[in-house]
Known about the structure:
Elements lengths: L5 H9 L9 H5 L2 E10 L2 E10 L29 H4 L1 H8 L1 H20 L12 H6 L2
Antiparallel strand pairs: 1-2
Amino acid sequence: RFFGCALHHLALKEGKHFVETKPDICWQLPLRRSWEKREVGDAHYDVIVIGEYTREAWGEGGEDLDWYCSSNTEAHTGAKPVYISNKVELVAMMNQKAYDHLAAICDARMAAISSRKTKKLPLYVIHPATAGAKK
């Protein structure tokens, strides 16, 4: 007997990534893609913003949606950073070229964090749930 999302099971059965079988809103969670408009001088830009889905993002009633939120400490126990474990989803949300740029920045940040000698300086902000999960 199977439990969970039928479309996720379909992807596994067909040897596909679930990005190919699920609706956008389903496979994007807990990542969140939104769009912002920016003006620089006379130029107008649409900017894709990739962030986390928090309870507040759902508006009224969002505090009841705690089963997937990235603000839970239980969501911060993965063996790999999100930019690696959710690569397929991030590429689908932003494109390969943008992902490669993101990965290079994240790789450099991870290397800097692991090689720094002083662990007490707040040079890098760690997600509060990640800090809580390590306790």
